[in-house]
Each structure stands twice: as C-alpha cells, then as structure tokens.
Amino acid sequence: MQRRTLIAVTGAAIVGSVFGRVTAAAAATGWQQRWAPEASVDGLSAFEGVEDDRANSHPAGQPHIFVQNNNFRFNMHTVDRDSMTDRQRQEVKGMHAQGADLVVANGETWRWTYAMYIPGSLKATTTFTHIMQMKMPGDGSLPILTTSLQRVGTVPKIQLHSFNDDVIVGRADLAPLQNKWIDVEFEMTVGDGAKGAVRWALHDGATPVIDVSRSGLDTFLGDRVRPKWGIYRSLGDTSGSLQDTYLLLTRMRAYKATTVAPVRYEAENASRSGGTVDSNHAGFTGTGFVNTENATGAWVQWTVNAPAAGPATLTFRHANGTTANRPMSLTVNGTAVAPALAFNPTGDWTAWADVPYTADLNAGTNTVRLTATTANGGPNLDRLDVVATAA
Ligand code: GCU
Ligand code: CA
C-alpha cells in the first residue's frame, strides 16, 4: 500500500513536468510518449533484450531479472559473474513497444522518466557500479552516458558521467536516496562532436535532489543509442561494498521530442541572385554573411532538410544598419508564405538579430527563399536555423 501511494505522488510530478517546461537539453516544443510499459502487463517484453546471467554463472539464482508486483526487479548475487569475470551484469537493454524495437537516432532528443528503488544493500563502490547506461549497441565500445553509484573518497554518491567528454554531469549523495522510491528524469539529445546535450534530475517525492543540464557534449558514437538498466558492476571494489542486492524500477516511460535539434544553414553557403559574401561587419557566424543586392527581386535561397512533414521554425539572422525596414517575401517550396517579412533596423551593421517564422516543411528536401520587395534590397543575412518536426 505504501508503495502504491508513493508512486501515485510520483506520477503526478512527472506528468506535470513533461508537458509544462522547455528543457535545457533541447528547445523541444513538446513530447510524444513512445514507451509506457507496465511491468505486470508487459513483463520483460517491454525491452529489446534481457541479459540475465548471460554467462550462466549462477543457474540457481535465475531468473535474476523478473517482474515483482508492478516492478522490474534485478537481483545481483556476489557469486554472479559476467562473461568478463572481473564484473557482474544483470541488465535489460532497449525499448520494445507495439511489436518493434524503438530506435534512438542521431539528432533526436528523448526523455525518460521512471521511479527507482535502491536498497541499502546496493552500495556505491570504488570501481564502477552502473545502474543505467546509454550505449551504442554491441560489444567493444564504451558507454556514452552512465548513471553510477560511486564512492568519492569515502562518500557514496550517485552520478551521471559523460564518457566521450569524460565529464561528471552531476553528482548527489546516495545515502538519503536509498530504501525509498525516487523519481528519475533523464533527457538526451543525441549529437556527434559537441552537438549532444543531457539533463538529469532526481526527485525524492516532491523534493528536488538534483537537476543538472549540460550541452556541448559528444553523445553519439555510431549506429544508434540504446538505454540499458539494471546492475552492471566491477568486482574491483576495495571498500567492502559488494553484497547480494537488487534494484527496482517502475513506471518507465520514454518520450521523444516532437522537434529535432536545430540545424544551421549559413547564408554564405546558400544560392543567391547577385549580392556578395562579405566579412567586413563583425558578429557573423561561419565565414561571412550575404550582403544582398540592393534591388527589388534580389534573393537568397537555402536548401534545408526535414525528417518529417510538419511545422518548422525558420530563424533568419540579419543585420540592418539603416533606419528603415528591409522587407523580404518568404517562399517555401515555391509557395509564398509571408509576403513581407520584416527585417527591421538593428542599429548597426555589426548588430545581428533573429527573425523567426513558423512554416510547414515537407519530409526531405525543401527550398526556402527570401526575396527583396523594395529597391533597397534585403538586409545583410548571416544564417538560417531550422528546427523541424521530428519523424
Ligand atoms: C553598407 C554596408 C553593407 C550593406 C549595405 C546596404 O554598404 O556596409 O554591408 O549591405 O550598406 O545598405 O545594403
Ligand atoms: Ca546590401
């Protein structure tokens, strides 16, 4: 009974935050629920795969991963051994819904929420104890992100680690979070180089424990990203913290952002009629900006990509050092959508401002054209940022 009460409170808090807030991980405008298994209904078919004592080291302890009440339970015994015998693993991997495995792809932003019970026997260790991983499928690559129970000096901590950048995104004391249900929120923008981002928040009932965000991370290795949950730990602990233990998870949910991460298209790479690419007024991005020809009908055209048909935010960046508006008509795939988009004075040719416009794009390739509607021509154009609807 007590557990049910706690989870009901938990659920309300999670739903409230899913739809009410723009996240730090990405400028997501909304979330689509893609995965909502109930342990008692879906069982382990909620997952793409189950790694229950995959080396068959402890048959008497099987199954180590099973449904208990409406929870997913992961048992770990000190005698359990993974195929690499310096460690132990009882994990589930990936998400399965409506007969298919869910794919978390490069460029996408996802959000996971669930309730987690870490008993006192599941302790932080001096070597790794992962309770969640984001990984490229397959052996032979390090995780991308891990949630781990780590001893820092003598203090047990729960932490999120970004491996490619070797950054601890956040860290909280573990002891106050044990032997109770806590709520986990985890958001990830999958991005190569520095295009990735992550947000990690823990709640103890209504009390926020930690809420950290980090962008500029490398969260993509190749293929796709797959979550794993369970206990994956090293036997190298020197603090005497390895015991028979377990982990409980419930109310697992995954949401996909309805928009993709912004894609930047520099004006100097667009096609155009007349004009020049200049770099004499500072503050542009890329290698320069387009100084549009001062004539009616002068145009700049970008070819932009969208993973799915739907509304997209097109944000044009411009400078206008005069005192008069330099309007341009906006056409998308040949259709005029805005007859006179205003490019107002910015105070100086080195002062740049954003002009956003929401227009429908097709799946695949689109043309976006700005055409000067007065003899003054358009402003200086720096770039176009596109936030498109996700597939
Ligand atoms: C100035 C300015 C240019 C700009 C032009 C204009 O010459 O240096 O960058 O394009 O005015 O009025 O269009
Ligand atoms: Ca000009």
Explain what the structure shows.
By secondary structure, the protein is mainly β. Helices cover 6% and strands 48% of the residues. The protein is built from 2 helices and 28 strands. The strands form 5 sheets. Strands 1, 3, 4, 8, 13, 14, 15 and 17 form an 8-stranded antiparallel β-sheet that branches. The two termini are 41 Å apart. Mean pLDDT is 92; it is low at 1-27. Bound molecules: alpha-D-glucopyranuronic acid (GCU) and calcium ion.
Unreliable spans: 1-27
Question: What is the CA–CA distance across the termini?
Answer: 41 Å
Oligomeric description of these chains:
single chain
Q: What is the total tally of β strands? A: 28
- SS-derived structural category: mainly beta
* Small ligands present: alpha-D-glucopyranuronic acid, calcium ion
Mean pLDDT, to the nearest integer, reads: 92
Element-by-element helix/strand order: HEHEEEEEEEEEEEEEEEEEEEEEEEEEEE
Instruction: State the major sheet.
Output: 8 strands, antiparallel
Envelope shape:
elongated
User: Over the alpha carbons, how many angstroms does the gyration radius reach?
Assistant: 25 Å
Helix content: under 10%
Helical region count? 2
